[in-house]
Amino acid sequence: MCTLETRGNIFLLTLTGNTEHRLSRTLISQIRSLLSQIRSESKSKPGSVLITTAEKGKFFSNGLDLAWAESDGKSHYRDRLIQMTFEFKLLIADLISLPLPTIAAVTGHAAAAGFMLAIAHDYVLMRKDRGVLYMSEIDIGLTFADYFMELMRARFGSPSNLRDLVLQGVKVKGEEGMKMGIIDSVYDSPEETVEAAMRLGDKLSLRKWHGEVYAEIRKHTLKDVSLVLGLVHKVVMAPRL
User: Fold this and answer.
1) How far apart, in whole angstroms, are the C-alpha atoms of residue 5 and residue 3?
2) How remote is the C-alpha of 197 from its chain's centroid?
3) Segments forming the whole domain that contains residue 23
């Protein structure tokens, strides 16, 4: 479902398994467990960086596991969806509060919660030969969780971008996403996207920022997101180098 490699100061988290990389309760739990491991290990590794990507294929992530939510009949669909949405909220909170820089290397389609997973990272790199960014909720008849909306407001750059993505379900390719300010850079293939993420990770690693300071500043830049996620701000003063 997901793996974790360590390459120097870079933690490489890869979504594996079925090609859609649906965010099931199991996968959400596995990612959270690995983020907890990264949080712990990074304390003794100044300059740590996280890169999240997916196995080569059509999807980075196609969102929450709606098939599981529907599998026990209509009467349980809402409760199961609420359960997954809450557990995914905890994952997003983990990412926003992670004490190191984070990079998403989007190697395929990123839809709904998969799109949210990507933009919960500090930097988003994407392939341009295939793959789209897509908020499918308007098309499949679902409203957005409050933390989805706050994260989209923070990351989509303008009211018109937000309108087009959530009220029209516009599908955005990598180069267009870069023009909109959602994507930082685009590349010709999945391999080049991951390689670029590794280069950026190496560059960020050289700064050796204090992890807790980094996390607190990130939370303040995403103040409304942090509030709805229930993240508490604290003052951190690291020793001067």
Assistant:
1) 7
2) 14
3) 2-229
pLDDT digits (tens, 9 = 90+) for 149-207: 999 999 999 999 999 999 999 999 999 999 999 999 999 999 999 999 999 999 999 99
In a domain, 236, yes or no: no
Question: Rounded to whole angstroms, what are the CA distances from 21 to 11, 82, 113, 118?
Answer: 19, 19, 11, 13
CA gap 102, 204 in Å, rounded: 10
Q: Do 112 and 63 meet the contact criterion of CB atoms below 8 Å apart?
A: yes
Asked, for residue 27, whether it belongs to a domain, the answer is yes
Please give the C-alpha separations between residue 139 and each of 107, 136, 181, in angstroms, as whole numbers: 23, 5, 24
CATH no. for residue 207?
3.90.226.10
Give residue for tokens 């989805």. Answer: 148
- Token pair listed for 125: 């790199």
Mean pLDDT by 10 residues, the chain (241 residues): 96 92 96 98 95 92 93 83 96 98 97 98 95 95 96 96 97 96 96 97 96 96 97 84 54
CA–CA distance, 57 with 51 (Å, rounded to integer): 18
Token digits for 213? 């300071």
Q: How many domains does the chain have?
A: 1
234 within a domain of the structure (yes/no): no
Q: How far apart are CA 145 and CA 82, in angstroms?
A: 9
What does the DSSP assignment read for 81-129? Answer: HHHHHHHHHHHHHHHHT-SS-EEEEE-SEEETHHHHHHHTSSEEEEESS
